Amino acid sequence: MANFLPQFHSIKTGCDHIVIAVEDVSDLWPVIKKGFEERLPIKKAFLNNKTRNPVLVDELPAEFILTTDARLRSRFPQEQSLFWFREPYATIVLVTCEDLDEFKNILKPRLKLIFQNDEREWFIVFVSKAPAHNDQATKMAKKVYAKLEVDFSSKKRERCCKLDIHGSDANFWEDLEAKIMECIRNTLDRRIQFYEEEIRKLSEQRFMPIWNFCNFFILKESLAFMFEIAHLHEDALREYDELELCYLETVNVAGKQRDFGGVERGDDQAILLDPEKKSLTQIVQDDSFREFEFRQYLFARQAKLLFKLNRPYEVASRGHSFIISFSKALALHESILPFCMREVWVITACLALVDATSSHFKVGLAAPDIEKEFYRVQGELYTLCRSKLMRLAYLIGYGSELERSPVNSASLSMLPWPKPAVWPSLPSDASSEVLAKEKMILQESLRPKHFGIQRKPLPLEPSVLLREANRRRASLSAGNMFELLDGRPNANDGSGLTSPLPKANAISMSRTFSSPGNFESSIGRPMRLAEIYVAAEHALRNTISDAELSKSLSSVESFEQKYLDLSKGAANNYHHSWWKRHGVVLDGEIAAVYLKNENYDLAAKLYEKVCALYAGEGWQNLLAEVLPNLAECQKILNDQAGYLSSCVRLLSLDKGLFLTKERQAFQSEVVRLAHSEMEHPVPLDVSSLITFSGNPGPPLDLCDGDPGILSVTLWSGFPDNITLESLSLTLTATHNTDEGAKAIKSSDAIVLSPGKNRITLSLPPQRPGSYVLGVLTGQIGQLRFRSHSFSKGGPADTDDFMSYEKPTRPILKVAKPRPLVDLAAAVSSALLINEPQWVGIIVKPIKYSLKGSVLHIDTGPGLRIEAAHGIEIEKHGIGSQNVDNLANPQEENCSPLASEVKRLALQDNKIELPEWTSNINSVLWIPVQAISDELPKGAPAGTAVPLKQSVVDGLRTIALKLEFGVSHNQTFEKTIAVHFTDPFHVSTRIADKCNDGTLLLQVILHSQVKASLIIYDAWLDLQDGFAHTGKGDGRPASRFFPLFVSPKSRAGILFSICLADTPGRGEAKELHPDSILNIRYKISGSRSLGAHSPVAEELKGIDGEDATLTFRSALVLQRPVLDPCLAVGFLSLPSSGLRVGQLVTMEWRVERLKDFEDIAASENHHDEVLYEVNVNSENWMIAGRKRGHVSLSSKQGSRIVISILCLPLVAGYVRPPQLGLPNVDEANITCNPPGPHLVCVLPPALSSSYCVPASA
């Protein structure tokens, strides 16, 4: 079977579609050929795959070939079974007949002869030539077709269809396609079954000595190729995958040593995407194939199918894995392959795979995840190619052009050297090249870093190339160790690029190593590094057949351009993938090339991206490698803002990454630019260099409106002291994000030392709320800076530890407006009116210091301050002391003055409180006197006392304003009401009337103060119409003086009086309408309880003099009730009673008892009486006039009834409305009933609005 391999290869080349055989029995094909071929390719075809599942094929390519064609008649039976995939999948038999006899005698026997081969899938197409207008011919054609269907069709399968040439039958073409697809499906299923059976038989023998992989390959690929031409690409791909697995299982069977391949010219170029690059006959070996070519052939077949399936991502992904695994296989056979064959092949494979997959990939067609993965694999291919190219460049002496960056060092230091059987020897005519390489080596020097930064260069090789190359020479002698190391004592530091020789050593170097005359030395002599470079370069020229790759390694410029292209390709693809960080890292390698070529603008842009990545990830070691390069570019470009930012970032890095002198160089650059004239000054962000936090402990607590001193801790990352010309710090409210930040500024320059610094800032009054530190801003020279980072210094378990994971701790809390102090009267009881009295004002600080406070005092009308007596202050009682100081009782007595009474001077109606009263409750005693010119009046016993009116009359106010706080910014204003009253309230009553006309007048004294009163004397000055009996001195009948009256108690004095004649009308101007009661008394009370001895009297008491007070009250004595002028009687109420909500008429009868002319002679209208109804509005509603005049004759016995309509509002016993006569003296009126009485008011009647009468 293996002999058919060349023929199999040629068949695959010329067969790419399904063949449909046409058996033209009646020579009809030329007539209908065009119509048939227009139906190709077959649209929307369903085929069964290997697992017998239907698969939709959008376009199935096919070709109609006559059975008489040479392509179908020149095949041998053995070929037909082996290459069955190229045989026809369906046979169409074209017939026509116009007579039944002709059909029976000629056509039918011929068709039976054709269908004797049951293996073919066939059906008959009957072509009718009958014209449409010839009915007889049309009927005959229908009879013949009916007979044809009877003979060749069955119930299971319809094998006939009819085509009318002169008619139009659209159903025919659908029927034709259905029958063709049925035949193709059946044929395909049968052939799949055949191939599977044959493959199974061979698979069972694969571990037996008779196993022949070529036979298995032909069968397996025949099946795969059949799937491919049927457009069942998934099944074809699966067959190639199985074929690859089977080959890998059997290729290295023990006892069978085969050639690996890859030694021919041009094998260095990968053929991963060109399966026809080498014929199978060229790589066959015995019963199998060479691994080097065959594995690439299988991958090329797989890639071709994947491209047809529009899956370029899978091609790239599989290709990357294949390159990695095949590279390992090349490493195993590296000793027999050309020098660096492995590296060259990987480069060409990666580039070919990248180009092919990129051209097939369409953006937007794949899912987003697949698209990103595709770009990632592309980046991986570019990176692998880039690493191999750098290895080749290092071998030929271009290592000095490579950036010794961490990514390059990581890639190359882990990449092993080539391992040829013998390291390439130096050609005999390469003396000039060696001299050039030596000169290049001597001129090598590392480019100095900006700021004078010194770093040990990173290695770019796994081991010293000089030692590795000489070790692999055919006959290695120990030689001279100094010669082995190329005359450089520091060549064993692990880096291939070392510092050049000193100038003296270079001049005195032996001619043995520098002259071109000694290159024909013994092979045992170790090769120098320049010779190794030249030998490797010549060997690579023999290995590399790709012109473009050869050109890339022909010069430093060409290599640099190729290196740059590969780095850009990898970076761009990584940027579009998930691995964006890889792309940014490679941007740094591209930037290094730009920096070397003095393309500073592009280099700076790329370095900024790299630095942003390293800073964001916290890779400070890597950032320290590239940030100086960025700073160098920015300085050359005169980018002052960027250069400043880079210097600050360098200072912000870990201190161990740079020496102290290097950090000082960074700071000097910052200070130099800050004090220079910048063209475009911009704020500098120093968040990573200057951090800040509040001091440990609780936040600063302030009250609303208070200023304060805020202490802040700053950490400076500068290595030396630095002066800040200005500094401001913003506070951000946590409760209201809409409110803008408030800045507090320091007016003085601040010098920050390295490390921790503490500063204080004056804090103006803030709004209530909690505040955190916001942004720190300031100025260094002409440069404005800002910082918004919190300090992270201090252990994690202290308040000093600040991090982004920990919530920001408030530094300031301003309390909401609350009472900070309270001013209240020391006593609530009444003081004596018209006498100097002490008014106590309690000053209560509420968790707030009153140090330096000033109290403004302003008295209201009717009240004055007795400033001559001075103002006293003392500590308030312990029961009402400041709650804030209960825990610290020693603070109360911080001053010896706190327990004593001290006098204060009043200046401009204000006093300054002593310091010892700042945190404790104190009482301020102010001497005042309430002025009242009215004489108090007594009342008859039993009448209601108008207490409210008396309270209002004795009310005085003191307006207080307290200024306190640090700068008297806090004010508290309050008006205090102080009640003043007379010591007694006087009421009178006639105790008895003697037969001789003597009246016993009882005067009842009601004490109105919380103090003991001592009455020493009393006398009564009577009004006109009354006279004293007895001595007539106005003294009381009973003299029990001194009379002691307890607080709020009563005492009585009895006077004996009688009626006297009143003066005539001519003497009316001398009438005395009121009687005057005079009382001489003393008061014994405490100013902390209420009324007390007057201030002046206390002072007299100190000298031992007695001081008494005089109280005078006006009394209205009523004439005897037996001689009234008018009588007012309350008429009886209705018998039905009073009820809430029902109107009722109240009636009073007014009757004149005697002639009123003498008494009311002065009145103009003595026949009219003014009346007024007094009522409690809470109990009654008056529906009428409450006040008016009524006509009443002045003659004795005249009477009138006054009626008022009233509405009761409340139920119970209430006082009814009272009728009064305001213009008539009460002594001339007699009432019935004589005193206040009560009436009963019933509740309202039940409502029956919603009641339903009960049924009878």
Mean pLDDT: 80
N- and C-termini, Cα separation: 126 Å
Structural class: alpha+beta
Low-pLDDT windows of residues: 474-522, 792-806, 878-898, 944-949, 1157-1164
Description of the structure:
There is one protein chain. The protein is of the alpha+beta class. The chain contains 31 helices and 52 strands. Strands 10, 12, 15, 16, 19, 20 and 21 form a seven-stranded mixed sheet that branches. Strand 8 (284-285) and strand 9 (288-289) form a beta hairpin. Helix 7 (170-203) runs antiparallel to helix 8 (213-229), helix 12 (312-332) runs antiparallel to helix 13 and helix 26 runs antiparallel to helix 27. The protein starts with a helix and ends in a 14-residue tail after the last strand.
What's the helix and strand layout?
Elements: H1 5-14, E1 18-24, H2 29-37, E2 42-48, E3 54-60, E4 62-66, H3 70-73, H4 77-82, E5 90-95, H5 100-114, E6 122-128, H6 135-152, E7 160-164, H7 170-203, H8 213-229, H9 233-250, H10 280-283, E8 284-285, E9 288-289, H11 291-308, H12 312-332, H13 341-360, H14 368-395, H15 406-413, H16 431-442, H17 465-471, H18 481-484, H19 503-507, H20 511-514, H21 529-543, H22 547-552, H23 556-575, H24 580-596, H25 600-617, H26 620-636, H27 640-652, H28 660-674, E10 684-685, E11 690-694, E12 700-702, E13 708-716, E14 722-724, E15 726-733, E16 742-746, E17 750-752, E18 755-763, E19 769-780, E20 783-787, E21 812-814, E22 821-825, E23 831-832, E24 836-845, E25 854-859, E26 863-865, E27 871-875, H29 889-892, E28 902-904, E29 910-912, E30 922-930, E31 939-940, H30 947-953, E32 955-964, E33 970-981, E34 984-993, E35 998-1007, E36 1012-1021, E37 1026-1028, E38 1043-1045, E39 1050-1059, E40 1075-1084, H31 1095-1103, E41 1109-1115, E42 1126-1130, E43 1138-1139, E44 1144-1152, E45 1168-1174, E46 1180-1182, E47 1187-1191, E48 1199-1208, E49 1212-1214, ...
Parallel strand pairs: 1-4, 1-5, 5-6, 6-7, 10-20, 12-21, 23-33, 31-34, 42-51, 43-52
Antiparallel strand pairs: 2-3, 8-9, 11-13, 13-18, 14-17, 15-16, 15-19, 19-20, 19-21, 22-24, 24-30, 25-29, 25-32, 26-30, 27-28, 27-30, 32-33, 34-35, 35-39, 36-38, 36-40, 37-39, 40-41, 42-44, 44-48, 45-47, 45-50, 46-48, 49-52
